[in-house]
Each structure stands twice: as C-alpha cells, then as structure tokens.
TrEMBL record:
It holds the Pfam family Response_reg. Residues 117-141 are annotated as: Disordered. This is Response regulatory domain-containing protein. Residues 122-141 have a biased composition (Gly residues). Residues 1-112 form the Response regulatory domain. It comes from the Bacteria. The modification 4-aspartylphosphate is found at residue 46. It comes from Streptomyces similanensis.
C-alpha cells in the first residue's frame, strides 16, 4: 500500500511475478481496512503516509489479537530512530528505499515462508514461492 501509484505498481508487478496475490491501498487507514477484509500473509508499510503513518499502523496491528502475529516489513527511506521505533513496535523486517526489486521479493518471500513454518501443522499458512500467498503492502515515502 502506497500513496505513490508508481511504487504500488512496481511492488505489485514484482510480487505477482513470484505468484503472490497482491492487494494494495493508498494510505494507512485504508491499509487497516484492507487487512481485516483480505487477511494477507505479509504487510509492508511505509513510515510516512497520509492519515495514519506506518509505525502507528504497525502498532495497531500488533495490539489486535487477529493481526498480532502478521509479518510486517517497513519499506521506506527511514532514519535510525524510525528503525528503532519499528523494532520496538514489533516490525519483522526493514527494506530501505530506493530498493532493488529482487531484494523486495526476497524479504517478502522470506516473511511468507516464515509464517508458513509458524502455522505449521495447522495447515493455514501461506503457500511459498510460486503459490498463491496474499500480500498487502503499504509503501511510499
């Protein structure tokens, strides 16, 4: 999810090429709505976003029992202070902008695969590379 349409498209195309279903939104508030409707396997967040910033979105997701264990990645040009705040909130991965598309794919697939191992025997984990795992992202500034 990104307030920048071009970045949303870049993320979408690169992850769809890996077989992931991608759902996007343009800001933090919309991100929360989408997450509760779609139930993605991974969420990417930008730090600077309209209406609700990425760190606040991450904090809300961690506070909600339905999304507490949802893998979160910050994709942003963020400062060391913002990275520390993300770690404090419980963000699982960070990817600095500008990023290489291959690195984005590596980070997202790593989080999807990690969640699949976490779900384990329950059988409700996402599919791995080439599968149909869901990913929701919010990236931007």
């Amino acid at each position: 999810m990104d307030d920048n349409k071009v970045i949303r498209q870049l993320i979408r195309v690169n992850l769809e090429l890996e077989g992931l279903e991608v759902v996007t939104a343009a800001d933090g508030a919309e991100c929360l709505d989408v997450i509760h409707q779609v139930r993605p396997d991974v969420v990417t967040l930008d730090v600077v976003m309209p209406r609700l910033d990425g760190l606040s979105t991450a904090a809300q997701l961690r506070a909600d029992p339905r999304t507490r264990d949802l893998p979160l990645a910050i994709v942003s040009a963020c400062s060391e202070r913002e990275v520390e705040a993300g770690v404090d909130v419980g963000v699982d991965a960070f990817l600095a902008k500008p990023f290489e598309p291959a690195e984005l794919v590596r980070v997202v697939l790593g989080l999807v695969e990690g969640r699949g191992r976490q779900a384990g025997a329950a059988g409700d984990g996402p599919s791995g590379p080439g599968g149909t795992g869901r990913w929701a992202g919010r990236s931007g500034g």
